[in-house]
């Protein structure tokens, strides 16, 4: 096996499986997708490590691929079906969107940084994942034109309640993400039912905060 193939297998065997990820569809997707293709050439040796990997394009906004274990466990909790329409909010270069494309019927992915959205489009096209549409758009706004969604995946953390995204869930829809409103931050699942929203903590987790979902600093006299 090539070095990247071995690293990919080690990521699954040493990080993902021991963290109680048992959904074989997620395991297969992580084994199939070349995570190194979603990172800058200088970062490829780090592609399969247990870290939030900086994929910024050199601009002021820092953007990351979040830890493989965190995204795997959130996707398992979301229980994505093969007919589901999924929004990936803050897709960076598209790795999470690619994983979701292996699970869902249709995927819409948004990214605030246009250069990274363009990179995501290119890589997803090269991998033949034709069921993903990538849009350069404000992460916090979602993509209401294509709502409602069965599942929304926050590809990072939020420090606020993402009300605009909640409203884009269909009845019975689920949103998963890392909520950094408390200490420690936790991965959560939010479910819409008859216009109300219930939430449940999944596991303690950390992730970089998505642009537009930062806490507004309190004014101090």
From TrEMBL:
Judging by the UniProt lineage, the source's domain of life is Bacteria
**Single biological process term from Gene Ontology:** methylation
CDD domains from the entry?
A: AdoMet_MTases
What are its GO cellular component terms? cytoplasm
The alphabetical list of record keywords is: Methyltransferase, Transferase
Which GO molecular function terms does the record list?
protein-L-isoaspartate (D-aspartate) O-methyltransferase activity
Family listed: Belongs to the methyltransferase superfamily. L-isoaspartyl/D-aspartyl protein methyltransferase family.
Question: In its UniProt entry, what is this protein called?
Answer: Protein-L-isoaspartate O-methyltransferase
Q: Which organism is it from?
A: Bradyrhizobium erythrophlei
Phylogenetic lineage: Bacteria, Pseudomonadati, Pseudomonadota, Alphaproteobacteria, Hyphomicrobiales
């Amino acid at each position: 096996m090539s070095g990247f193939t071995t690293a990919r297998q080690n990521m699954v065997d040493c990080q993902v499986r021991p963290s109680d990820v048992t959904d074989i569809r997620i395991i297969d997707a992580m084994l199939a997708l070349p995570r190194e293709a979603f990172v800058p050439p200088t970062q490829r040796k780090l592609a399969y490590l247990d870290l939030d990997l900086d994929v910024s394009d050199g601009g002021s906004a820092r953007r990351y691929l979040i830890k493989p274990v965190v995204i795997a466990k959130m996707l398992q909790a979301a229980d994505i079906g093969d007919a589901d329409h999924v929004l990936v909010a803050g897709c960076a270069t598209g790795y999470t969107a690619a994983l979701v494309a292996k699970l869902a019927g249709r995927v819409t992915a948004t990214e605030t940084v246009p250069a990274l959205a363009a990179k995501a489009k290119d890589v997803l096209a090269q991998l033949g994942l034709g069921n993903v549409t990538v849009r350069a758009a404000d992460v916090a706004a979602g993509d209401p034109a294509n709502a409602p969604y069965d599942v929304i995946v926050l590809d990072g953390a939020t420090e606020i309640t993402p009300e605009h995204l909640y409203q884009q869930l269909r009845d019975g829809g689920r949103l998963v993400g890392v909520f950094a409103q408390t200490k420690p931050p936790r991965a959560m699942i939010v479910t819409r039912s008859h216009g109300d929203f219930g939430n449940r903590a999944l596991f303690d987790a950390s992730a970089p905060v998505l642009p537009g979902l930062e806490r507004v600093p309190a004014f101090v006299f």
